[in-house]
Design goal:
By secondary structure, this protein is mostly helical. It is built from 21 helices and 5 strands. The chain has 2 domains: about 250 residues, no CATH class; about 140 residues, Serine Threonine Protein Phosphatase 5, Tetratricopeptide repeat, CATH 1.25.40.10. It is elongated and about 95 Å long.
Amino acid sequence: MHKKTVIISFILIHAIVFADVPTNRQIKPLPPRLKSLEEELIYDSKKTEEIFYKRGKVYDEKEAIDYINKIGSKIWPNTYLDKNINLNVKIIRDPVVNAFAMPNGSIYIHTGALARLENEAQLAYLLGHEISHIINRDSVYNTQSWHNKTICYKLVDIILAPTSIFFGILGDLTQLGFFLLHAATITGYGRKIEARADKDAVRWAVEAEYDPQKAIGIIEIFLSEKDKYQKGQEIFFLMSHPKSEWRLKEMQELISKECAKIRKGKIRSEEFLKIMTKIKLYNATLNIKIDRLEHANDNIQWILQEFPNNPEAHYLAGEIYRLKAEDKNKLKDELSYEKWKELNKGYKKDQLEKIWLEEAMKKYNRAIECDPEYPHSYKGLALLYNYKNDKKQTLEKLKKYLDINPDARDKRYIMSLIKRVSEEEQTDKSRKKRRRKR
């Protein structure tokens, strides 16, 4: 990123190892001494959720929410009966690849996670992992351990940070004492607990007739990001969970031992991708806002392949190319050293920027071909022409943008830009006249 994302300081419990953690659906009853603690955590969970909604942090897309909860209900164990805890999966507006479960049964999946998934089997696995934390009451045991151990402080690199910037949520969470809901609900419970949750997720996905190999493909996605992006930002799947290489090996062994005789299960890519298109596009805009241009590109590339006539996808691709050309250092801050070096290999100075500007032009025009009434394509072209100092085309495209979208949210900005460019154009014309007179 051009500017480092604000790093939020949370209280993080270091890897806590619990003994005798169940690895199947025979859930161990909560000891009576922890009942009041669980009630307190459920209360805190509800208060935190109120903040999420108050700040507009929850992505409320009915079709996607209903679909995700339908998958969750297939994984949620029928034997688990606790009237105080009900499964409710929600989507949170945050481009970081993450998800977390609360003690009251709420699971929040970041738009960033949904944008990187490829099929329903992977979604089933992700939900199974979080459900395992809920029904095994990991947050309760973790909190009980927290009360008995020395508190460790740690800066967590990007925990709800982008959304804290967008929605001003940090102050509210600090005031509530959000750490009591536990950074651990977001950052992990330690190697043993996360391994159990992984195994539960695979077993339950298989029981729901999903393909186990495709389900764990989610870990392979995170591994691919390790080499592509800046060191320190590898996605461990829920941040400080055990490393992806180790997790993948463990799950492969589990599948070979327990699932070898199971026929190939469901993958269900088509319906998943269709429903997630809006979320992937939305998440790309969030990544663009925080200068994660290649992350945004990851979000939309499959859309361009599966839905080549989607105007918004082409427009966002144009934005990514334009912004890369305008400030190449954004990529330098985002990519790993190896990928940055590879990107520049064989190109002369400013050559890449020129290529990106040409590609941006193609993408904007392709978006207009797909839908001549899609307004943002014209705004993108206007900003591109303005960067190239073509004032005539800048004004033409800006006016076209407002013609199609007269109630645009950024109308005041566009009007001020039109005024400024018009004044500059008049100044240029006056200079030319004076030169001719000489």
